[in-house]
Design brief:
This protein has helices at residues 7-12, 17-27, 144-148; strands at 38-44, 47-53, 62-67, 70-75, 99-104, 109-117, 120-127. With 149 residues, the chain is an alpha+beta fold. The protein folds into two domains: 1-31, no CATH class; 33-79 and 91-132, Immunoglobulin-like (Sandwich), CATH 2.60.40.790. It is elongated, with a radius of gyration of 22 Å. Keywords: Stress response. Pfam families: HSP20.
Length: 149
């Protein structure tokens, strides 16, 4: 396995330690499984959609949580309580196991909506850049301090 040495970046970039830890976490994806399968779509310049195939789960079985810049989607099936009768499968191809999937969100990316329909969980994301973070043009000869008073 190839490793990336980020030490030259630490010499010239100040305050980007979070970026380095995100790269390290992305390169160590051993804890993430491939279940459930998902797509990430770009819907517009600042709009995204995560579509996750979670057949057999209802909206009560799924939890969506955002903390800092981390989106966690987890699903837990309740224990089968069908009068102690066990179902016998000749073939079981639909997995109904519990899962947890984490996504790292970029700065200013917010969850706008979530919907579960036909076994597909759709999570709409939007990047909302605050006005003070957007580029602005400065007029030459004007004092920025005069406008604030």
């Amino acid at each position: 396995m190839r490793t990336i040495d980020l030490s030259p970046l630490y010499r010239s970039f100040i305050g980007f330690d979070r970026l380095a830890s995100m790269i390290d976490a992305a390169s160590q994806n051993g804890s993430q499984t491939t279940y459930p399968p998902y797509n990430i779509e770009l819907l517009g310049e600042d709009k995204y959609r995560i579509t996750m195939a979670i057949a057999g789960f209802s909206k009560d079985d799924v939890t969506i949580e955002v903390l800092d810049n981390s989106l966690t989607i987890s699903g837990k099936k309740p224990e089968d309580t069908q009068d102690d009768t066990k179902r016998e499968f000749l073939h079981k191809g639909i997995s109904e196991r519990s899962f947890e999937r984490k996504f790292h969100l970029g700065d200013h990316v917010k969850v706008a909506a979530a919907d579960l329909e036909h076994g597909l969980l759709n999570i709409e994301l939007v990047r909302e850049i605050p006005e003070e973070k957007k580029p602005r043009q400065i007029e030459i000869g004007a004092s920025l301090l005069e406008n604030k008073q």
